[in-house]
Amino acid sequence: MTNYWVKNIRTIDNEDSKEVLKEIDILRVMVKLRLNPEGKHDKIIMDLLDNILQLTNQTDLLELNEKLEQLTIYSQKLLKEEWERVKKESRKGKEIKIT
Questions:
Q1: By the 8 A CB rule, do 78 and 42 touch?
Q2: Which residue among 47, 54, 66, 77 is least packed, with the fewest CB closer than 10 Å?
């Protein structure tokens, strides 16, 4: 969503851009609240979310796209890690602590 919005930012008027930024910030906070501040991939994702928000106010689309790509990669890693944990719990029949 952010990537699409940033590419089209020049066509959005100031009032609409404020609303979009507000929505992006709300979504960023909601995602961060669901992450584990002690988790390896979670920490990286939280940092990337903060960096991406700052980059939406700048004109360096190359850096923004790079951070968005990193966010995708680390989100996939986190989801894979969680999926493996859930599968393992399912086989063992008990909850496994995240380290």
A1: yes
A2: 54
Mean pLDDT of the chain: 83
Residue 77 neighbours by CB under 8 Å, 6+ apart: 41
27 and 64 in contact (C-beta within 8 Å)? no
DSSP result, 9-76 = GGGS-HHHHHHHHHHHHHHHHHHHHTS-TTSHHHHHHHHHHHHHHHHTTSS-HHHHHHHHHHHHHHHH
Measured on CA atoms in the order 54, 66, 30, 94, is the torsion positive or negative? negative
Span between the terminal Cα atoms of the chain, in Å:
31
> Computed from CA positions of residues 17, 18, 22, 23, in that sequence, does the dihedral angle turn out positive or negative?
negative
Query: What global pTM score does this model have?
Result: 0.71
